[in-house]
Amino acid sequence: MRLVGRDLPGAECGDYRDVHVGVQRGAEPDQLVRADAAEAVFEFEVAVVAGPDGSRDFKGPFVQGKRGERFFYLTWGELPPGGQFAMFRRAKLWFGDLPEAGVGAGAVVGEVGLTDRAGMPLCAGVRPPGVVWG
Length: 134
Hints:
Layout: E1 2-6, E2 19-25, E3 28-34, E4 40-43, E5 47-50, E6 56-59, E7 71-78, E8 86-94, H1 100-105, E9 109-113, E10 124-126, E11 131-133
Parallel strand pairs: 1-9, 8-10
Antiparallel strand pairs: 1-4, 2-3, 2-7, 5-6, 7-8, 9-11
InterPro entries: DUF5990
Pfam family, one: DUF5990
Protein name: Monooxygenase
């Protein structure tokens, strides 16, 4: 899985400073990128397995949610120099939106704009066309 985030909101957004974004691994942020970068690229592995009914299911440390509703999070937080990450919002992207061809080939690439209409970090549920899977 590879997700490329473009149009980052900047390291200072509203009342937030030292803003970073990462993909959530379990309960923790992973692959953090400062929100004033030109782009954020997240790469991680996800296992595709057959569910009890034969449908595809997703497993791995980045996978969240119950069977049939699997997703992953992009997590936003403040990360001051020498400090700890303090999450303030997340964006949810669903594995069920991935194209069959990419899943079958074992490689899926997506692109997403990471700034919402108010100029803040993208949050809430993100589905096509908000994310483009290829």
